[in-house]
User: Fold this.
Amino acid sequence: MIANTVKKTFSLFKPNPLAEQIDFASKDSIPIRHLAIGFEGEKVDLSFYMNNQFATIFFATLSVFLTYGEDLVIETARHHRDLLKDPILKQRVTSLIGQEAIHSKLHNEFNDAIVELGYPVTLYRFLGSNFFKYIFLQFPQPLKLSLMAGIEHFTAVLAEYMMKHEQNFYFSEDAKTRALWMWHMLEESEHKDVAYDVYEVLNGNYALRISGFALAYFTILGLIPFSASLVPVFRKPQEMLTAKFWKDAKRGVKLIFSPKDGVFGSTQGQIFDYLRKDFHPNDHDTSKYLEYYKQKLLSEGGALHPFFVKEFTPKVQAA
Ligand SMILES: [Fe+2]
Ligand SMILES: [Fe+2]
Assistant:
């Protein structure tokens, strides 16, 4: 009986790769953009997000932890790129790797800068790197692939929310923090289907896909908010004795978790849409937003224009 149960459990996770061919050539190619921002600690606005320190600290915490998520995406994408046959999907994976590598680099520069503001970067880097090293990076490759697709789903939902709420980035004069997040959101939306397509082409098992989603959910909406809530304790515990702090914290929680219009609160339906068996990231069409932002941010006077260095698109290599 035990053997039967084990067998049944394993069969639940049997690969079920996509049978039909996807025409990857019909998709837009993805450029890798280099930016040079040069953050200066004392000039980073700790109330950047809608004049709210608590919500800004949430995003700073996300900035610290997501560099490890990006490293996992890079490692996993590299491993699976070698298993792919379609040369255009391989090219898209190279773009994903390139974009994530530069995200990780620039977020690390931002994270270095916020040390000056008393943010516990060293402690959180220690916790984040060990958590990923001893837990997530130890997973077998199929689970890592599913986790990568799950993480990318969250960043896609976050990116879509931010693209629909452009004004939220303009409460502050801090043009560098604005450039970091707007560039990152633009690219997360641009490559949102790559990890998912790789997962469907190479594995496609539904139960495994949902396992990766659950792990991403637990990390992004459990561990990160919990870690963010502890930052004031390490940074300026005396501030926690003031009414102003708790007023700011209450508003910050709403900005992130309110079901009405909070970043993650109002997008739970879209987050859980991932559970649909026939889900695909492009079911949520963001192409118009992408066009608008590429045009607006990168051209003269745009938020990314002063920091833009160069861009290139990886070549399609013969299979
Ligand atoms: Fe990223
Ligand atoms: Fe991404």
About this structure: Residues 83 and 97 are 15 Å apart (CA to CA). The radius of gyration is 20 Å. Residues 206-235 form the longest helix (30 residues). The first strand starts at residue 32 and ends at 35.
